[in-house]
Amino acid sequence: MTDDDRVFKGLADPTRRFLLDRLYERDGRTLSELESELEMTRFGVMKHLRLLEDAGLVVTRRSGREKLHYLNPMPIRMIHDRWINKYRERYVSALADLKNELEETA
Amino acid sequence: MTTMTAQTTQVYQLFIRATPEQVWDAITKSEFTTQYFFASRIEMEDGRRRAYGPGGELWGDSAILEEDPPRRLVHEWQGLYDPDLAAEETSRVTWEIEPQDGGITKLTLIHDQLEGAPKTAESVANGWMFVLSGLKTLLETGRPLTG
């Protein structure tokens, strides 16, 4: 699996997207905090977090006895640069071409 | 465009196909920073990290708290390039450089202690993503991301 595959796999699940949104709102949460917002066993939440960590979407840091979870925006940024920007540019230039064409024929 | 909610601790992590020494040089030497860090020059002298804009204007002048090449650099942060940011409290930037298998280096940037600098927190959230993705591109392709 490539890095991109792991990111897409990480994002391809509603529970994991929910976890990312919670961290987007407020970073640096513990497993217990995240778990309290989900109807899911601690083990289930841990599994999802592990997958997000493997994809680089979540980075954990130790703070004393606690393990805090942070959203890492870099992989999504890379995906954005690679997959969104590229196609948006083409879309925008297609619209510009259409505009030119319509104006010329008008 | 939506920006990330300004967090008081921001963590950015990426993997770069380069050695830790190359990453260290890229974040501490002007010949590299001018190519991806908003064209800024970096000077690390007398325990301070100074950043200068393309016209020589002082963009940052902060204390270096830890310097352990090529693994760890910690310095204070205060944006002098904007009066609103300069008026805020000093925050802290930590660069962690860890070698991985296969010629890959893991770079983690932590910008924290932003409690007294909400505008800085907002401003750097997009800035770091741009800077770090430019750093990766420069080291992996030898060319800057833009231009």
Could you please describe the fold and organization of this structure?
The complex is a heterodimer of chains A (106) and B (147). With 106 residues, chain A is mainly α. Chain A is 67% helix and 11% strand. Chain B has one domain (10-141): START domain (Alpha-D-Glucose-1,6-Bisphosphate, Chain A, domain 4, 2-Layer Sandwich). Chain B has helices at 20-28, 30-36, 83-86, 118-141; strands spanning 10-16, 41-45, 48-52, 58-68, 72-77, 91-99, 105-112. The longest helix of chain B is centred in the last third of the chain and has 24 residues, at 118-141. Chain B starts with 9 loop residues before the first strand and ends in a 6-residue tail after the last helix. The mean pLDDT of chain B is 93. Chains A and B meet through helix 5 of A and strand 1 and helix 4 of B.
Which CATH-level-2 architecture of chain B? 2-Layer Sandwich
Give the rounded overall mean pLDDT of chain B. 93
Q: CATH topology of chain B, anyone?
A: Alpha-D-Glucose-1,6-Bisphosphate, Chain A, domain 4
Q: How many beta-strand elements of chain B?
A: 7
> How many structural units, i.e. domains of chain B?
1
Mean pLDDT of chain A: 90
Order of SSEs of chain A: HHHHEEH
- Biggest protein-protein contact in the assembly: A-B, 18 and 16 residues
What distance lies between the first and last C-alpha atoms of chain B, to the nearest angstrom? 23 Å
Just give the CATH class of the largest domain in chain A. Answer: Mainly Alpha
Strand order of the largest sheet of chain B: 1-7-6-5-4-3-2
How helical, in percent, are the residues of chain B? 25-40%
Uncertain spans of chain A, ≥5 residues at pLDDT below 50? none
- Range of strand content of chain A: 5-15%
Q: The CATH topology of the largest domain in chain A is what? A: Arc Repressor Mutant, subunit A
**CA-to-CA gap between the ends of chain A?**
52 Å
Q: Give the CA-based shape of chain A.
A: elongated
Rg for CA atoms of chain A: 19 Å
In what order do the strands lie side by side in the largest sheet of chain A? Answer: 1-2
